[in-house]
Amino acid sequence: MTGKFISFEGPDGAGKTSVLKAILERLEPALGTKLLITREPGGNQNAIAEAIRDLVLSPDYPEMDSRTEALLYAAARRQHVVQTIQPALAADKVIISDRYLDSSIAYQGGGRELGVANIEQINAFATQGLQPEATIYLDLAPEVGLERIQAHRQGEINRLDVEALAFHQRVTDAYHQLIAQTPDRFWVIDASQPLDAVIADAWDAMQEILASELA
Predict the structure, then answer these.
(1) By the 8 A CB rule, do 74 and 122 touch?
(2) Domains contained in the chain, number
(3) Residues 66-105: pLDDT tens digits?
(4) Radius of gyration for the alpha carbons in the chain, expressed in angstroms and rounded
(5) DSSP assignment, residue 7?
(6) Can you give the residue range of the structural domain that contains 57?
(7) pLDDT above 80: residue 156
(8) pTM, rounded to two decimals
(9) Sign of the Cα pseudo-torsion (89, 98, 186, 112, in order)
(10) Smaller CB count within 10 Å for the chain: N or C?
């Protein structure tokens, strides 16, 4: 596989959607059809993974067991890998994914307290070890993220948005542990800065990651 696989990660409220939008607006003219944009849970033109997304994020199922949730995320990820990511890598595309495996480790392993090792194990089976070569992580204190959600978010509110601060603190702690374990993969951006500065830092990282494609 010769393509490039890059993920974007961050806690709720870090501004990932806005930053990604700005980055993709710069990448699309430069890469054209070589660029593939996707997301998790779900995926680019991936009906099975999108159906799982609708189920796992729906606020209509507050009784969903935490292990059920973790297994559903892994199932959606498996379909995403085989139907979207692997074919794109084989076609030498640049894949930008809004979240990937790190999110499950942080949210289910840390936030839900299911254990990082347990989540890594079921996802190793699901992904067969496929990891991004680079991950841009927007770093933000969880209390700031929750304040932003309350102040600015409109529209969809999913099951994870209504969790207590302690849950989001565990998520952030798990992300930080991942970064400490694999620092060469992560590009950490201070998301407490003004949005323009966050975008500028993320774009600098992306230019370095994709130096050969953007030359």
Answers:
(1) yes
(2) 1
(3) 999 999 999 999 999 999 999 999 999 999 999 999 999 9
(4) 16
(5) E
(6) 4-210
(7) no
(8) 0.92
(9) negative
(10) C
3 annotated to bind ligand: no
Residue type, 152: H
Q: What angle do CA 201, 153, 11 make, to 5 degrees?
A: 45
The answer on whether 13 is annotated among ligand-binding residues is yes
Kindly state the average pLDDT of the residues 114-125. Answer: 97
| 142 marked among binding-site residues | no
Q: pLDDT category, 150, cuts 50, 70, 90?
A: confident
**Is 10 a known ligand-binding residue?**
yes
Structure tokens at 113: 């307290």
154 within a domain of the structure (yes/no): yes
Q: How far is CA 169 from the centre of its chain?
A: 17
Query: Does 145 carry a binding-site annotation?
Result: no
Whether 12 has a binding-site annotation, put simply, is: yes
- Residue 29: inside a domain, yes or no? yes
Q: Which amino acid is at 163?
A: E
215 inside domain: no
For residue 96, what is the domain's CATH number? 3.40.50.300
